[in-house]
UniProtKB/TrEMBL annotation:
<keyword id="KW-0812">Transmembrane</keyword>
<keyword id="KW-1133">Transmembrane helix</keyword>
<feature type="transmembrane region" description="Helical">
    <location>
        <begin position="309"/>
        <end position="329"/>
    </location>
</feature>
<dbReference type="InterPro" id="IPR036197">
    <property type="entry name" value="NarG-like_sf"/>
</dbReference>
<protein>
    <submittedName>
        <fullName>4Fe-4S ferredoxin</fullName>
    </submittedName>
</protein>
<feature type="transmembrane region" description="Helical">
    <location>
        <begin position="285"/>
        <end position="303"/>
    </location>
</feature>
<feature type="transmembrane region" description="Helical">
    <location>
        <begin position="127"/>
        <end position="153"/>
    </location>
</feature>
<dbReference type="InterPro" id="IPR012830">
    <property type="entry name" value="Citrate_utilization_prot_B"/>
</dbReference>
<feature type="transmembrane region" description="Helical">
    <location>
        <begin position="211"/>
        <end position="232"/>
    </location>
</feature>
<feature type="transmembrane region" description="Helical">
    <location>
        <begin position="101"/>
        <end position="121"/>
    </location>
</feature>
<feature type="transmembrane region" description="Helical">
    <location>
        <begin position="244"/>
        <end position="265"/>
    </location>
</feature>
<keyword id="KW-0472">Membrane</keyword>
C-alpha cells in the first residue's frame, strides 16, 4: 500500500475522530471513534468496513472549499483498492485488472468463447455437442478452485494484519446479519445512503445489491443442484423448465441481470470524485460482466433448441470463465474482505464490551 494513501486517510480520520458528527452513519464510524491513534492496520480495517455510501461527505462541514478538504469516501476507497491489490495472489494481477479492467474482461470472455466455438465436439446432445462434459469439468474445476484458493490466501493475510483472533460462530452470525440486511447501505437513520442522490437519501443501491446477492446465490444453487443431479442421479443437462436447477437458475438469472443493470445505472449517476477512479472503472467492468453472466444464461436457455445455442453457449461459458478467473482481483473479492472486516469488527466490539 502506498504511504501517500495511508497518510492522507490518517489525516482525514483524525479530523473525523475529533468531530464525530457522523458517528452513527455505518460500521466504519464506531470503529473510528473507538481509536485514539490509527495504525496502518487500523486504516485498512476501517477502509474495508466503509461501503462508500457517501453520507458522511454530504453531512461534513469540512469538505472543500474548507481548508481541511475532507473527502473520506475517496480516501478510504483508495486505501481499500490498494489493500485488495496488495493481498491479491499474485499481486500483479490485481494491479493489472484495476488498470485495464475492461480490456482484461473482454479478452477473457471473447478468447474463451472463441475456444469453445472452435472445439465443437460434434457428438453428444445439447450443450455437450459443443463441449464434452469431461472437458468442461477439466477446465472449470481449476478455474473455480484456484482463484478461490488465491482469494482465501489473500483474506488470510488480511486477517493476520488486522489482528484477527480465532473466529467464533457468534462473530460470523453478527457479520452475516449485517450482510444479509445490507445494514451499512441503509444510512445512519435507516433512510438509505447518498450514493447516487447527492444530499438526498435513497435505498436504491441497497436494493440493487440485494438483487445481485440473491440472484448470484440462486444461480450458484442452480449449478450445485445440476452437479448433484448429474453425478448422483445420472440426469445430465439440459434440464426441463420444471426442474430444480431451472427453479433456481431462471429466477436467479433474472434477479442478477436486473440487479446489475440497476447498479450500472446508479453508478452512472454517482459523483465520480467521491470514489477511487481505478477501482470505480474496475467495479463497473465487473458489474457488467456479472450482469452478462445472468443475461447470457437466460439467453442460452431460450435458444437451447435453436441454431443460436452454440454462440450463446460459447459467450456464456466465456463470461463464467472470466468471472471465475478474475474473482480474486475484482469486486467479487470485496465481499470476502468486507465480510472479514465485519467479523473482526464483531470481535472488537465484544472485547470492548467485556472490558467495560
Amino acid at each position: 500500500m502506498s504511504t501517500d494513501a495511508v497518510t492522507e486517510a490518517r489525516r482525514q480520520l483524525e479530523i473525523c475522530n475529533a468531530c464525530r458528527y457522523c458517528e452513527g452513519y455505518c460500521s466504519a464510524f464506531p470503529a473510528i471513534t473507538r481509536l485514539r491513534a490509527f495504525a496502518d492496520a487500523d486504516i485498512t480495517q476501517i477502509a474495508n468496513l466503509c461501503h462508500n455510501c457517501r453520507g458522511c461527505y454530504y453531512a461534513c462541514q469540512y469538505t472543500a472549499p474548507h481548508e481541511f478538504d475532507l473527502n473520506l469516501p475517496a480516501a478510504l476507497a483508495t486505501v481499500r483498492r490498494e489493500s485488495w491489490e496488495e493481498y491479491a495472489v499474485p499481486a500483479v494481477l490485481g494491479r493489472v485488472f484495476h488498470t485495464r479492467a475492461w480490456a482484461v474482461t473482454a479478452v477473457l470472455v471473447l478468447g474463451f468463447a472463441l475456444i469453445v466455438a472452435l472445439m465443437r465436439a460434434g457428438d453428444g446432445a445439447g450443450f455437450y455437442a459443443w463441449m464434452p462434459h469431461s472437458v468442461m469439468v477439466a477446465i472449470f474445476a481449476p478455474a473455480f478452485l484456484l482463484p478461490f484458493a488465491a482469494l482465501a490466501l489473500g483474506v488470510r493475510r488480511y486477517w493476520r494484519d488486522v489482528g484477527g483472533t480465532p473466529v467464533r460462530w457468534r462473530h460470523v452470525a453478527a457479520a452475516s446479519k449485517r450482510t444479509a440486511r445490507m445494514a451499512d447501505l441503509s444510512g445512519g437513520h435507516g433512510e438509505g445512503c447518498n450514493f447516487e442522490q447527492g444530499e438526498r437519501f435513497s435505498q436504491s443501491r441497497r436494493y440493487a445489491h440485494q438483487l445481485i446477492l440473491w440472484g448470484f446465490l440462486l444461480c450458484f444453487a442452480s449449478t450445485t443442484s445440476g452437479t448433484i443431479l448429474h453425478y448422483l442421479a445420472d440426469a445430465p443437462a439440459p434440464y426441463p423448465l420444471w426442474s430444480i436447477p431451472k427453479a433456481f437458475g431462471i429466477p436467479g438469472g433474472i434477479l442478477l441481470t436486473l440487479g446489475c443493470g440497476w447498479m450500472l445505472w446508479l453508478k452512472s449517476r454517482a459523483d465520480g470524485h467521491l470514489s477511487d477512479q481505478p477501482s470505480a472503472r474496475a467495479d463497473t467492468a465487473f458489474v457488467a460482466l456479472l450482469g452478462f453472466v445472468g443475461l447470457s444464461g437466460l439467453a442460452l436457455y431460450a435458444l437451447r433448441d435453436t441454431g443460436g445455442m452454440g454462440p450463446a453457449l460459447a459467450l456464456h461459458l466465456g463470461a463464467v470463465f472470466a468471472l471465475f478467473v478474475l474473482t480474486p482481483y475484482t469486486k467479487m473479492a470485496h465481499g470476502a474482505y468486507r465480510f472479514a472486516a465485519l467479523v473482526r469488527d464483531a470481535q472488537v466490539k465484544e472485547a470492548q464490551a467485556q472490558a467495560a
